[in-house]
């Protein structure tokens, strides 16, 4: 049962990151695509904006896909956690902890989840387990 729980966590978190990456990269799911996301990133001091949007979008999309599949899980967790650290530093930290004030509560939880899964392993229902 534990491995099913780990699979559910990986799928929910990983596919959510895939969606966020797709918003940045392709404008899917109500996102703004590279140009729109890049403009916003420049407005918060991350330049060049389109390049930073590409990096963030790829980290979320690829990292989320790898995490969901349980493939190279520690690397995937690193990509996702690094993206969330940047989000905390550049956007959420000045607002405090609680998400109700646009704080970093949600980003923090995501970091803990991806690092936690990386430390305990992706579980039996993962590609990592198949290639051991």
UniProtKB/TrEMBL annotation:
Localization in the cell: Cell membrane
Membrane-topology annotation of the record: Multi-pass membrane protein
GO CC terms, sorted: plasma membrane
TM annotation in the entry: 45-68, 75-94, 106-127
Listed Pfam families: DoxX
Keyword rRNA processing: no
Keywords of the record: Cell membrane, Membrane, Transmembrane, Transmembrane helix
InterPro entries given in the database record: DoxX, DoxX-like_oxidoreductase
PANTHER family, sorted: OXIDOREDUCTASE CATD-RELATED (PTHR33452), OXIDOREDUCTASE MHQP-RELATED (PTHR33452:SF10)
Annotated family: Belongs to the DoxX family.
Full protein name: DoxX family protein
Taxon lineage: Bacteria, Bacillati, Bacillota, Bacilli, Bacillales
């Amino acid at each position: 049962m534990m491995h099913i729980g780990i699979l559910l966590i990986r799928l929910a978190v990983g596919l959510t990151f895939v969606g966020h990456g797709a918003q940045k990269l392709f404008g899917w799911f109500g996102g703004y695509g590279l140009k729109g996301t890049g403009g916003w990133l420049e407005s918060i001091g991350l330049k060049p904006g389109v390049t930073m949007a590409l990096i963030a979008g790829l980290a979320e999309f690829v990292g989320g896909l790898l995490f969901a599949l349980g493939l190279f899980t520690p690397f995937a967790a690193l990509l996702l956690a690094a993206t969330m650290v940047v989000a905390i530093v550049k956007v959420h930290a000045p607002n405090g902890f609680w998400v109700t004030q646009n704080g970093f509560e949600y980003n923090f939880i995501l970091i803990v989840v991806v690092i936690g899964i990386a430390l305990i392993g992706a579980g039996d229902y993962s590609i990592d387990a198949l290639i051991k």
